[in-house]
Amino acid sequence: MIRIAIDGPSGAGKSSLAKGLAAKLGINYLDTGALYRTVGYAAREAGIGPDDRGAVVKMLENTEIRAAFEDGVQMMYLNGRPLGDAIRENDISAYASAVSAIPEVRAFLLETQRDIARRESVVMDGRDIGSCVLKDAICKIYLTASVECRALRRMAELQEKGVDTSLEIIKADISDRDYRDMHRDVSPLVQAEDAVYLDSSDMGIEEVTDKIISIFNEKAGK
Q1: For the segment 74-131, what is each residue's pLDDT rounded down to a tens digit?
Q2: Predicted TM-score of the model (pTM)
């Protein structure tokens, strides 16, 4: 099985890159965020507040979450029931963010992610994939970009949506997010010892994708 782990700070383009990389290699992209969204969905459905750690942990005792790839599309199942786009509802984002900070939830989903990687060739991205989830990944990448570059990308996205803000505000938000991610008590953002550091500040997505494929081929001895 092929296992590729991509970690890095917010706004580095991990998800877009991971999806494109998986497509080029003909393997699956595992959206780990969808797993946390499913836990969040289960909590909301049970009437549990996202910050009620005790109730969320108790809920996990009777919760089964499964991810399956159908025609290359990741489908999430909650207690055997397909959820489709329900986990993409706006208010589920807040639930997913809250439950992802609960150690018991991360432990609960850890084996789920590893089990998928045992059965499927996957590309996974996050902040602790190479350092924790897929320690045996054949290829680990720590993808980053300068705060300035990430802020410019984010500003362009917001402008497309008609949101007016300043570059300085976005840069401050990104710097704050970086600090929080790197100093979390649970699964902080770190570069795995055997990960390749890749700064994409001056690179396009195709260039980054080709670079990672080259790194993968070298690691795999191709």
Answers
A1: 999 999 999 999 999 888 988 998 898 899 999 999 988 999 999 889 999 988 999 9
A2: 0.86
Contacts for 116-121: CB closer than 8 Å, 24+ residues apart:
116/30, 116/67, 117/1, 117/3, 117/30, 118/1, 119/1, 120/1, 120/27, 120/28, 120/30, 120/69, 121/1, 121/2, 121/3, 121/25, 121/27, 121/28
- Could you tell me the two tokens for 20? 């494109």
Please, is 117 exposed, middle or buried when counting C-beta atoms within 10 Å of its C-beta (0-12, 13-18, 19+)?
Answer: buried
Beta pairing partners, 7: 126, 142
Helix axes 32-45, 53-60, angle to 10 degrees: 100
> 126: Cβ–Cβ under 8 A, 6 or more apart, which residues?
6, 7, 14, 32, 133
